[in-house]
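Sequence in, structure out.
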Amino acid sequence: MIKLPERWTRFFTEPLLPPTAFSISRGQVCGVRRAGKEKRVGAHVIRPLPAGALVPAFDRPNVADGAAVDAAIKDAARRLGAPAGAVSLLIPETCVKTAILTFEALPSSPTEREAVLRWRLAKTLPLKISDLRLSFDVVPSNGGARAFCVLALERIVADYEQAFAKAGLRVRQIGLPTPHLLGLIPRTGPADILVAGIEDDHLTLFAVCSGAPFLFRVKTLVLGAAANAGSFWVQVAAEVATTIHFLEDREKKRLEAVWIRSAVGATPEDLAAIEARAGCPVRTLAFSAPAVAGPKEQAILAPLVGQVS
């Protein structure tokens, strides 16, 4: 049984998620709004972005066309009926760095924990740790602790926050898409899994074993629109297989299932090819939301639905 941590990629400490959540990526701005206090989608929106308006990257400006991005966010908020105020936001995984650190023990104080993590990260990062915004979650693992750390340049995060502020929205919590897919996985399923988030230009692989993070990788792919479809899925299958073999060799973990969310669609043949390379069952993530029709729309909104579920 998977025991899911309550906080995965949280930049702030408020305990409750706002009722409205947005995500932004190279291709679109999306949003969902919970139905009252219920954990279900009451409304949703998918607003395409012009090509090249947003170019997610870790150390370069992400917003290439500010007017287009601002207009898309404002239109998405209007269509969603989102009142001005606090929202949560999922940003592209290609604009952050991650690290999973292991410890025999960590201080119980969050402030002291952060100091220890920053000291450890500073030893390996080429950038000043003071220029980075850090989010982390610590979970018990094998008698010790594992810390899942997410780092982003302060100026990059601020650009996203300011873009939403222009629409009257205050970003209170920031996270990443793939970890929130865990909210869609049955709690009674296998305990050692790999979650694959597939976009047209990158693949995110997140391995969770017995409720603890073991690996988080973001791999660049040849753009789906410019590549042969067969070649694209060969890349995906190869990366999934390589990751599984790495976990077997390095961590001595045998994964029991691969869960896939593909924002570019996937045929049964594509999934079968991945399963053949993975050597374990491959399943697609799904959720029940009458307001969201169609598999492509569901795949695009899945991280947001996983967050509010």
